[in-house]
Amino acid sequence: MKNKIKKKHIIFPIITAVLSLTLMLLVNYNFNSLKNKNYVDFLSDLSSKKVSTVYFTNTPKIKVKLSDGKIYETDNPRIDNFKENLLKQGVQVLENSPSDISHLIFMTAFIISIVSIMGILIKSSSIRSKGMLSVDSLDTAAISDLPFTFNDVAGNEEAKESVQDIVDFLKNPEKYNSYGARMPKGVILYGEPGTGKTLLAKAVAGEANVPFYAMSGSDFIQVYVGVGASRIRQLFKKAKSHGKAVIFIDEIDAIGKKRDSGKTGGSDERDQTLNALLTEMSGFNEKDGIVVMAATNRLDMLDEALLRPGRFDRHIEVSLPDLSAREKILYLHLKNKPINEISINEWAQKTAYFSGAKLENLINEAAIIACKEESKYIENSHIDKAFSIVMAGYEKQNRDYIKEKDRKITAYHEIGHALVSLKALPEDKVSKVTIIPSTKGAGGYTLSIPEDNLYTNKNYLKKRIMVLLGGRAAEEIIFGSEYITTGAHNDLKHCTSIAFNMITQYGMGETLGLLNMEELINLNINKNSIVIECKKLVDKLYNDTKALLLNESCLLEAMTNELLEKETLHAEDIKKYRDKALNF
Ligand code: ADP
Ligand code: MG
Ligand code: ZN
After folding, report:
1. N or C, which end of the chain has less CB nearby within 10 Å?
2. How far is CA 264 from CA 69, 261, 271, in A?
3. Contact 436/318 with Cβ under 8 angstroms?
């Protein structure tokens, strides 16, 4: 389409150029092949009043135009008063040859058309080369008039809080500098697709009122080697030229994926691009007020080089919305639409595991259906239909629709961890329990250890193992030993490693006593006995864990029910259970 328009544009000047060139040559030819007449003949023409115009040229000849239009040449007599004489006889006298004027016109037309042809060619070739080498033609135009603020991001409170200081920094980098504070140059937002990572980055720029430059990692991966790197440099140059800015690189994994040690060829381009990015990031300093934000679905896929301090050293999880977040997102997207008697809370409950993007999509489908039906309002029935459509699409895709049974298993498992932690390690704070899947795995349970003790004691390690076993223990208590799940896979790995280290490294076991396994590696020690001791330890702790949970079965039920209802329990929700667990 674009090409056709360009062709049309170029055809016109080409025609003009050819035409004017032909005419120019023709005129020239006509005048250069003029008949030569004797001066005597001219004089006789003059006396018989046939001459209308005489042209003086810068050659030794003059050109003569008769009243019947014929033109010929004759010698210039170069006598005094020749011109005056002619004028007296009523003959027009011109100082340039008749061809000069038309020559001039055609010449001008020719030059203009040549210039415009060249102009068009240069322009189109520069568009083409820009497409390859510069970011101008890409979607990097800064959106300075950003309409996005944190109000456009519903839920995701933790992520918003985590980027709040970046907004402050962008607004006022001098303040942070005066305290000698170093702001993160790079922030990685990670989480499932459609959870609002791009939206959050835009909102940071919008809140700070700085331009937003966005590119996708896949834009940098080109056929031509070196193009990606040069695009990175141009992107940063452009952003820096405007002072403060947010640079957003979506799908950072396209350039920053872990390098496989095996293969070397073929990834040259990606390495160059990645190196250019790292160089640019170390090239600007904190005072510049530039923050690079990147998004990925998989944090664990990224090259460590990207995650080192001074690079993307802040990692913010953007998780799927829980019940209350879904309610907020639905509310946000319905806010400016004509709605009638829609129970937002009910829809929030039905849309478990929907991402923000899917919720937005659901509302949009409903609006389309309402519009097709020419209904005055969007009503529950429209969302109902939209829901069937959306679910039909999603059910085919993997695990969007997680069965109620699975939610229940996850809830008991996670509360198992949390409750054991409350009872056995009351000093450790359980800050969050959720059944919303994250990129890290199915459920999620977070605990933050308040003080980082220099030494970890035996008792603490045993309790840690119990907390890790709490998930599996709860599953077994509630569903029976035949229905335990694979969900405990990572927990078991982790607690095996703690138990093994206790016995082989820290001198906390019986088989080796105070001996360190690493030092004995060349001796033929009986590893079997170590495995047996590990197993004995973990088995005992598992029984203790089950006993503990059975003792607190009321709390286990209550907490699980609240978790199933809210999908996420935060520190405030957990606090009341902590008090109960300890008062016993
Ligand atoms: P991601 O970059 O994580 O894939 P996007 O930021 O592109 O997700 O989100 C796509 C769309 O989904 C947004 O434009 C918005 O309409 C909607 N959306 C996602 N998360 C939220 C949220 N937390 N609040 C409001 N809308 C959201
Ligand atoms: Mg995105
Ligand atoms: Zn677990």
Report:
1. N
2. 83, 7, 10
3. no
Residue 451: predicted pLDDT: 53
Going from N- to C-terminal start, the domains of the chain cover 2-102, 150-317, 323-392, 404-583
Best residue for ligand 1 mutational test, from 360, 362, 439 (most atoms within 8 Å of Cβ): 360
Pocket lined around ligand 1, Cβ cut-off 6 Å: 153-156, 193-199, 295, 329, 332, 356-357, 360
What mean pLDDT do residues 75-98 have?
Answer: 78
Distance linking the first and last C-alpha atoms of the chain: 77
Which CATH superfamily hosts domain 404-583?
Peptidase M41 (1.20.58.760)
Q: Is 414 a catalytic residue?
A: yes
Residues 6+ apart with CB under 8 A from 515: 507
Which is higher by pLDDT, 454 or 327? 327
Ligand 3: centre distance to CA 487 (Å): 6
Judge: domain 323-392, CATH 1.10.8.60: yes
Q: What share of the chain is helix, strand, coil (3-state, %, to 5)?
A: 60, 10, 30
Q: Where are the alpha helices (DSSP H) in 403-443?
A: 404-424
**Is 168:181 a contact under the CB 8 Å cutoff?**
no
Same fold, 2-102 and 150-317: no
Ligand 1 atom nearest residue 295's Cα: 2
Ligand 1 atom 12: residue of nearest CA? 357
How far, in Å, are 214, 278, 406, 424, 440 from residue 292 at the CA level? Answer: 10, 11, 38, 42, 24
Residue type, 556: L
CATH topology for 150-317 is Rossmann fold (3.40.50)
User: Do 199 and 360 meet the contact criterion of CB atoms below 8 Å apart?
Assistant: no
CA of 486 to the centre of ligand 3 (A): 10
**Cα(154) to centroid(ligand 1), Å:** 9
Q: Say how many Å lie between the CA of residue 405 and the centre of ligand 3.
A: 17
Backbone angles phi, psi at 369, to 5 degrees: -65, -45
Q: Cα separation of 230 and 254, whole Å? A: 16
Report pLDDT for 286: 67
β strands within 235-356, DSSP E: 245-250, 290-296, 314-317, 339-340
Residue with tokens 């605990």: 447
Domain 2-102 annotated CATH 3.30.720.210: yes
Name the percent of the chain lying above pLDDT 90: 34
> What pLDDT, on the 0 to 100 scale, is given for residue 131?
39
